[in-house]
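User: Teach me something about this protein's shape.
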Amino acid sequence: MAGTVATLALASSLLAACGGDGDKPELVWYINPDSGGQAAIAEDCSTDEYTITTQVLPQDASQQRIQLARRLAAKDPEIDLMSLDPPFTAEFADAGFLAPVPQETLQQLEDQGTFQGALDAATWNDELVVFPFWSNTQVLWYRKSFVEKAGIDMSQPVTWEQIIKAASDNGGKIGVQANKYEGYVVWINALIESAGGQILEDASAGVDAKITIQDEPGEVAAKIIEDLASSSAAPSDLSVSNEGTAGSTFGSDQGSFLVNWTYIFHNYDDTAPDVAKDIGYARYPQAVEGEESRPPYGGIGIGVSEYSDQKDLALEAAACLVEPEQQGKNAEMTGNMPASTAGYDYPALADIYPEDLLQLFQESVNAAAPRTVTPYWSDVSSSIQATWHPPATVDSDTPPSSETFIEEILKGRKLL
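Assistant: First, the predicted structure itself:
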């Protein structure tokens, strides 16, 4: 009897997932935890043929990866669509978890002006494997009152060295992300890329990729982190700082500079209107004076599961979800910017953001440096966190020691 009940329950759940009793199919989209944008466009893109529903993934990106990877490895057919963080795209594609993106979608993405950085982050082995949805980037936020006091001309590019000195000399604190998590690696990667380097080269070689974190750009990155951590501009919570705590530092009486994502512009509207009026913005700081910065790249690509029972419908739905109007609507609701120039034409965005800030966002996305696209990124990132944290311990020995450790992890000679 127990076995019969279990069998009936399983059959019932499968029928429900497929839209049983003659109902139209239900496509389940596993989304990252944002404020309503994805649910709204799921409703917009539902049709007479199918309904798109959403399930929210965990807050932490690594936990998102674990939940999806475990279910896809088991060939779970109840995942149709998924919001994927760029660092995990290659891993999922290499494992065969993602359905190929149709050729006609490539033309759609080109026609709507998808940013090159978004395409790069969505590509593995020269093939587009997810649908670029939103493309976030970081800029340098500053308190206008502080830079006036410090006498800095923010109409010109500034370096990390300059802002660290200005904050130190004028009682300011700089907000960064330096906790032992992915956000810290985002900062390290941006510093290395801004200095003209990469963490890995020839990533398609997998565990045999060339590790280059100890090259001169890695030394530049380590020096910047060391200089900030040892200065009076370092906030007291530097070693546990994340996007939220860095934003709190910026909003305090000691707020001076902050590197953070696009949502910050309206972060203080209701809670600290005086701070909101005091916010200025500029291109991400240069790591090397005279060399253009490579800001961090973040975003979401929409993947279609290879194991979905409704794969063709899910591919059709994904193409709708990344249309410019949907990208724009999501940006309006969440502050996560579109992955295409056409998405920026969504009228509401011009009412929410100044024109020059929207231009800065697009310029920064175009110049942004995605983290290395490799199926082993999770191991690489964890290795960097293990050797570069806490920031107060970073010095000239950090890049070579981290390079050795990354190689040992990738070759299986050590465990994380």
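Now, about its shape. The chain has two domains: 2-136+297-367, 137-296+373-410. DSSP finds 18 helices and twelve strands in the chain. If you'd like, I can walk through any region in more detail.
User: That's plenty for now, thanks!
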